[in-house]
Design brief:
alpha/beta, Rossmann fold, 8-stranded mixed β-sheet, 36% helix, 17% strand
């Protein structure tokens, strides 16, 4: 895929109808999963899913479909510079380039279904996006679900020297790739890994320096503001995750101001818990659907 690709679409009508233009003028690809309901019947609630870095929203059927089976309208979008959305691949100027689009999309859907409770799910960098969004917009939703969120820099992956180097590179070559995701650490299911490696909508070209600086700075900010989080919170994190640190989730559990907060640690779990085999992913999804359902009353 071209690094500077604009609209990533095959021109099909259903795709074109799913785009919205963000405040920076980029076309953002949105996806919607609708529950079966009678005409004029409101959904039980609205659930937005924020995907992780380099991937795209169409990888989340496994979470969305069980939610629609329980009466929820689920929606998501490819972050700017991801999937079918416009923008330079995995490049931002400010982390709010992501969060502003979440707020805009949630507002668009809420306007169509006034009065419906809103929940937001975020995986990996999507978890970072969700927490930052809620910190800046505390009334945007009734509760959040995090799956292996990136909340703290893992010194085993990115030490102080590398962070310093990335900051230097960002000043002179902001789009230079400075790291890659090892797909073998995504989950324990080889079929999922193969699909990830061969998915043309997944970005395989490396993570950019400027993106890295925005990401590091946002995690630092989140660490300083965790006590401001007041909404109900469910966090699932594998203790064998090699891409995000469990310590960040444990810190959030300790510091968040929420009275309703749960951290579920998955023994042996890798990064994409919703894809983990041997019933692990299935149970995680059941926990998410149950948790949201109980708080949608």
């Amino acid at each position: 895929m071209d690094d500077t690709a604009k609209q990533q679409t095959d021109g099909e009508k259903e795709d074109a109808d799913s785009f919205f233009k963000n405040k920076n003028g980029y076309k953002i690809f949105g996806k919607y999963w609708y529950p079966k309901r009678k005409e004029d019947e409101q959904p039980r609630g609205l659930v937005f899913i924020a995907h992780g870095v380099g991937e795209h929203c169409q990888r989340y059927d496994c979470i969305a479909n069980p939610l629609t089976d329980n009466g929820f309208l689920v929606f998501s979008h490819d972050h700017v510079g991801h999937g079918k959305s416009e923008g330079v691949r995995v490049d931002i100027v400010h982390f709010t380039d992501y969060t502003n689009d979440v707020v805009q999309h949630v507002d668009l859907v809420k306007a169509k279904y006034p009065g419906c409770p809103v929940f937001i799910i975020g995986h990996s960098m999507g978890g970072t996006i969700v927490v930052k969004t809620v910190l800046d917009n505390p009334d945007i939703c009734r509760g959040i679900v995090l799956i292996a969120p990136s909340l703290q820099v893992d010194p085993n992956l990115v030490g102080p020297v590398k962070i310093f180097a990335v900051r230097l590179v960002s000043r002179c070559a902001p789009r230079l790739p400075v790291g890659r995701i090892d797909s073998e650490t995504v989950c324990h299911d080889q079929a999922v890994i193969d699909d990830y490696d061969n998915d043309p909508l997944v970005w395989h070209g490396g993570l950019k320096a400027r993106w890295g600086v925005c990401f590091f700075d946002t995690m630092d900010e989140i660490g300083e503001r965790m006590s401001e989080i007041q909404c109900p919170l469910l966090n699932l994190h594998g203790d064998a995750d090699k891409l995000t640190t469990l310590e960040g989730s444990q810190l959030l559990q300790d510091k968040a101001g929420s009275k309703d907060k749960t951290l579920k640690v998955i023994p042996g779990g890798y990064h994409e818990l919703h894809f983990e085999p041997d019933g692990v992913g299935t149970q995680c999804i059941k926990d998410i659907v149950s948790w949201i359902g109980e708080r949608a009353q």
